[in-house]
Design goal:
This protein has about 675 residues and is α+β, with helices and mostly antiparallel strands. It folds into 4 domains: about 160 residues, no CATH class; about 160 residues, no CATH class; about 120 residues, C8orf32 fold, CATH 3.10.620; about 80 residues, no CATH class. It is built from 21 helices and 23 strands. Strand 22 and strand 23 form a beta hairpin. It is elongated, with a radius of gyration of 46 Å. The two termini are about 70 Å apart. About 30% of the residues are buried.
Length: about 675
């Protein structure tokens, strides 16, 4: 089924308008619609169509690889789909300018081509025009254009396409009314779906808060996810010294605890733009704390909003290529970027990133207040200095509590923190961090809950410390002498205990995944270097041979076909001449056959003459045929052949014998005419 005139060209222009690629779209539309005036067509074979289909496939793969090498693959997948009209244009052009005017259905499938061709229910050939029209609208729909022009243009193209195939029996006014109703219903429906999507995303986000969110965080008290036991590599870290390798890298801190839901959150949710540093791609976090050290973090941003991993006391980030960075009052730095981010962090003692202490940093939920007060009195924390309080609390948890990913179930009348402090005395880092925050607050020390990762100094690859999902950690930041310091009361062997609980099969599989992850990381570093040096812009040049190769093959085939036709028409090949094929003896053989003395197929000439000589009804002399046979054998098989005199003699003898033995001059044998 053909599309109405100029419809495909209009769809291409519509795509170019949405993509802001009008020059390219005009050229594409001109190539397509020029077929209505350019009447010449090429006789293309199935192999020619298949070569162009392979070109389109390679172009799609090449564009995907280029996006991947350029570091835009994660959110650039939709970018690839936007360029489908350009990628599939060669296939449409060979259909339009071929004598067939259609393509094989099997060209649209990479696999199961034979099964498709053998399926008699499916048509073997099709017109690509309407499919290409839909692809143009499909590609234009991926453009982030929030105006209503896309919907208007799509409806206009739909009316254009349906106009030629509308029922002539129905009134035109009714047809237009139905089109308007369908367009209005579609418009209202897509608005409703968009709003429904927003509501669902907000509800789900408010409930589960997936990803890097610093507004609210499940403390995971008693509900450790399966990912905690996973060894997936989240990022890599390279520290400055041996004493600095097992440091804590913080993502965010929280000041509000909901004991009923076991959720930590922040009371102030605002983010403020981060000021740029003195050097390019550097960001100033806080004032220099002195005695600066540095560490390098390598994490994948993938075009999403991520929280930076920062050590306590961080005051400067360098070599971080992002368009914007924001920070909140609790030290969470939020960025959005592409590909691998490899940045250096300058840090010192304390943590100037966090806002000064507030009343919220001393708040204890009512449900836990009684247990926390009893424990603080038991440890006599009020009588100690802040530094001594931190030391005693850390020692208390180290001697009286154990680490476990699966603590015992709690009693109904106890909260999880109450159950942890009074009954189980066993839990994971979220239990220890939450209880420590509340104990320090009871002692009058402002404290907050921190989440992030702990670097394992023994888990390295290629000079980098591997930071896995299983190293996710929670600890406490306390304000001592107007300085925020880290306090980790979780038993120091928690990482070893988690590794012991990992099955052997998972460890083997993890080694394989680590190797693959290492290869991908090295590739990401190479890609980043190529981006910095500007080499990636030359990658499309390597794809040009792939673009021109199929067209060169088709042109070569057409040229060879024209040459072959011209040679067959103008130069008829002469039959091969066999030596002796013009021998005069063949006339004698034919005359004997006419006289009834036929030679059997298996007889040689000499045997044949001997046989007919002995027949009783022979009326001709065989002396001349025997003389001619001797000359014939020489003419036929002797490499020297016959001389000119011998050929002349052979012709004279044959002519004379044929004249003497004409069938009309010989009497009939046995009453029959031979």
């Amino acid at each position: 089924m053909k599309t109405p005139p100029l419809l495909v060209g209009a769809a291409i222009l519509f795509w170019g308008f949405e993509m802001n690629q009008m020059v390219l779209a005009v050229l594409m539309a001109a190539m397509v619609e020029a077929s209505r005036w350019f009447k010449h067509r090429w006789e293309l074979k199935e192999a020619d169509f298949r070569a162009v289909a392979m070109l389109c496939t390679l172009a799609l793969i090449g564009l995907a690889l280029f996006r991947f090498v350029a570091g835009w693959f994660t959110h650039g997948t939709w970018m690839i789909l936007k360029w489908l009209p350009v990628i599939l244009l060669p296939l449409l052009l060979v259909q339009i300018y071929s004598t067939a005017g259609r393509i094989s259905v099997s060209l649209l499938f990479l696999f199961r081509k034979k099964q498709i061709l053998n399926d008699h229910k499916m048509p073997r050939y099709m017109d690509l025009s309407f499919i290409y029209l839909a692809i143009c609208i499909f590609g234009a729909g991926f453009v982030n254009n929030r105006s209503g022009l896309f919907y208007v243009g799509m409806i206009g193209l739909a009316i254009w396409a349906l106009w030629s195939y509308r029922s002539r029996r129905a009134p035109l006014a009714l047809w237009l009314v139905l089109i308007v109703v369908a367009a209005a219903a579609g418009f209202l429906g897509q608005i409703g779906l968009s709003e429904l999507q927003t509501v669902v995303e907000q509800k789900v986000t408010g409930l589960f808060m997936p990803g890097d969110d610093s507004y609210r965080k499940y403390a995971q008290i008693g509900d450790i996810p399966d990912e905690k036991l996973s060894g997936r590599i989240v990022f890599r870290a390279r520290t400055g010294g041996t004493d600095d390798r097992s440091l804590l890298l913080r993502e965010a801190t929280y000041d509000t605890f909901n004991s009923a839901l076991s959720i930590w959150s922040v009371s102030r949710k605002n983010y403020n733009p981060l000021s740029a540093g003195p050097e390019p791609n550097s960001w100033h976090l806080a004032s220099d704390a002195g005695a600066a050290r540095s560490c390098t973090i390598a994490q994948n941003l993938n075009g999403k909003e991520r929280l930076l991993k920062l050590p306590g006391g961080a005051f400067q980030v360098e070599d971080l290529t992002v368009a914007r960075a924001d920070i909140n009052d609790y030290g969470a730095v939020k960025v959005r970027g592409d590909g691998l981010a490899r940045y250096s962090v300058q840090y010192g003692p304390g943590s100037a990133l966090l806002s000064p202490p507030a009343k919220r940093d001393l708040y204890i939920p009512i449900r836990e207040s009684k247990v926390i007060q009893q424990l603080a009195d038991q440890l006599n924390l009020r009588s100690l200095s802040p530094s001594e309080t931190l030391t005693r609390v850390k020692a208390y948890f180290a001697t009286e509590f154990t680490y476990s990913l699966k603590p015992k179930s709690k009693k109904r009348n106890l909260t999880k923190i109450e159950n942890f402090l009074t009954r189980n005395r066993s839990g994971h880092c979220e239990y220890f961090a939450s209880a420590t925050v509340l104990l320090l607050r009871q002692a009058g020390i402002p404290a907050r809950y921190a989440r992030g990762y702990s670097v394992n100094p023994s888990d390295t690859m290629g000079g980098w410390c591997l930071v896995r999902t299983s190293y996710a950690h929670a600890w406490t930041v306390a304000n001592v002498d107007n300085t925020w310091v880290n306090l980790d009361t979780t038993p120091g062997n928690w990482q070893a205990m988690e590794r012991q609980q990992q099955p052997l099969s998972e460890k083997i599989w993890q080694s394989i995944k680590d190797f693959v992850s290492g290869m991908m990381f090295e590739f990401a570093q190479w890609r980043q270097k190529m981006q910095i040096k500007g080499y990636l812009k030359y990658v499309p040049l390597f794809l040009l041979p792939l673009v021109f190769w199929p067209f060169w093959r088709i042109a070569t085939r057409l040229k060879n076909r024209r040459k072959l036709k011209k040679r067959v028409v103008s130069k008829r090949e002469k039959p091969v001449q066999i030596a002796g094929s013009d021998s005069a003896f063949y006339g004698v053989e034919q005359r004997l056959n006419d006289l009834g003395q036929r030679r059997y197929l298996w007889e040689t000439l000499s045997v044949w003459l001997n046989r007919i000589e002995n027949t009783a009804n022979l009326t001709v002399s065989l002396d001349v045929p025997r003389e001619l046979l001797a000359l014939h054998y020489r003419y036929r098989f002797d490499p020297l052949g016959l001389s000119a005199d011998e050929k002349s003699q052979m012709t004279r003898l044959s002519s004379a014998w044929l004249a003497e033995n004409h069938p009309k001059q010989i009497a009939p044998q046995n009453g029959r005419t031979p």
